[in-house]
Amino acid sequence: QDQIKQLQMEVDILKEASIFHFGSATGFLEGDLKETYYKLLDFSIKNNKIISFDPNYREAFWKNNKEEFVQNSLNFVKYADILKISEIKKCDSVAQINKLRHGFLH
Questions:
Q1: pTM of the full structure
Q2: Which residue among 26, 27, 72, 97 sits deepest, i.e. has the most Cβ atoms within 10 Å of its Cβ?
């Protein structure tokens, strides 16, 4: 019973939030966090929340699989109301995401 109450409180907190921010530095690494990110994205979309996304590319995590980083990022970019990209973080993969984002907007 206490666990059910705790879960309901957590859902209520999520429903009250108006903005969900996602950063990809570690959020797309395989495991529970990635699964949770996608569930929260789905929740955000279904509940008309503002979605913010930072495709925070980290060479150390993605150098062997840039395409996976790009694909995961695009799944979030296409729903992002706010996209955060700084000059320092730009790399070929983020530049590719920018080009594709531009295509979604036009």
A1: 0.73
A2: 97
Residues 6+ apart with CB under 8 A from 85: 54, 55, 94, 97, 98
The residue written with tokens 């930072």 in the block is: 54
Please work out, in degrees rounded to the nearest 5, the angle formed at the alpha carbon of residue 10 by the alpha carbons of 8 and 15: 95
β-pair type (50-54, 82-83): parallel
Strand partners, 21: 52
Question: Per-residue pLDDT tens for 14-39?
Answer: 889 999 999 887 788 888 889 989 99
pLDDT tens per residue, range 24-77: 877 888 888 899 899 999 999 999 999 999 888 788 887 788 888 888 988 999
b/e map of 13-50 (b: 16 or more CB within 10 Å)?
A: eeeeeeebebebeebbbeeeeeeebbebbeebeeeebe
Residue 52 neighbours by CB distance under 10 Å: 17
Pairing of strands 19-23, 82-83: unpaired
